[in-house]
Every structure is written in structure tokens, then in C-alpha cells.
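Predict structure. Chain length: 206.
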Amino acid sequence: MLVVDDHPLLREAIAARLAQMGAGTVHEAASVAEARARATATGPCDLAILDLGLPDGSGIDLVTELRSQGWPRIVVLASSDDPYAVRSAFQAGAQAYLLKSASPMVVTDGVRRVLDGGVYADPSVAPVLATGTRVPGTDNTPRELSAREVEVLQLVADGQSNKEIGEELSLSALTVKSHLSRIGRKLGTGDRAQMVALAMRAGVIR
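Prediction complete.
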């Protein structure tokens, strides 16, 4: 795992928490440049946790870079609940947006959900995400979703993986994937975080 933050104490605390959660090697970086060097040296890790306010560049750009390099899971841990930052982080490819002011329990829960294949937004920023994300060129009408598709999407919002969703609904993982493909076509996005945001915005899921 990789932790990117320019505050040494916070970085060490996050690394220690990840180790308690069972992480193997935890790499640390204090800037965009250090993060790029670490990423190049290690290749994609299981998870990256990064701040947006880095001293030498944009954390959003770093999210985009890591995703393009094949990093599967990225969690943003930021001090700002600015709506633009929240939406930009998810649009860049982050699976979670957590606040530094959150309790260790909330942070741990968010990281666990992402590791399990879900998406997560700090409770105080979730409404921001739900009220502002639209996909250009579509009418974004989640009410066209079937009852089963709504069930699947709610479980995605709850942070469950395709396998877990299948077990809960007595479906194969392949069937769950097919449901998500249909949901994506209806909503105009294949991104799990945006699917959830659009459905929350329409009041289809909680």
C-alpha cells in the first residue's frame, strides 16, 4: 500500500492503522514527486491513500495518473469538503473520499469497503456527491431501473463486492456483472461511484 501526505505524523498514523488492518508493506511519500517515484519503483499496489493538498502539485492529477498506471483502489483522505474537490476526486477514479477530521473508525470503515470492492464517501460529503453528478448526453433517469437492479445498486452503495452481492441475492457473480452493465447503460456511466451518486440523487437508493 502507498500513503501520500505531507504531514509526517498523520502519514505515520495512517500507515500504522493499515498495518493493524493486515497490510503487508506500506510505502510512504510526502509529495507528488515522491509518490510518482514510489509508484514507478513498486508498480501498482493494492491501495493508495492520498491527500489532495500536496506541496508540489495536484492530488487529483495524481489520482488520474495512478489509475492510468493500473492502480486498482485509491482513497482520498482530505481536509476539505469542497463539493468540487469531492466530485473531481471520484471523476478522476478514486473509490472513496474521507475527511481527516473523521474518526479513525470511519476512516477504517471506508478503507475496508474499498478493499472489498465498494465505494465510500464520508457521511458529511455523500449528499454533495449525490446532488451534483450528472453525465453529459444522458437524461439520467434511474427510475427506469428494475427492482432487481435497484437491489444490486443499493448493495454496491453499501460497499459490497460482486461476489458478496451474488451471495446475498442468490445470483452468480456473472449475473451481478450483467446487472451492473445494464445499469451502466441506463445511467450513461460504467463507473460504480457515479452510478451510486446518480441513483442517490434521484432518491432511488439511500
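Summary: The chain has two domains: 2-131, 147-202.
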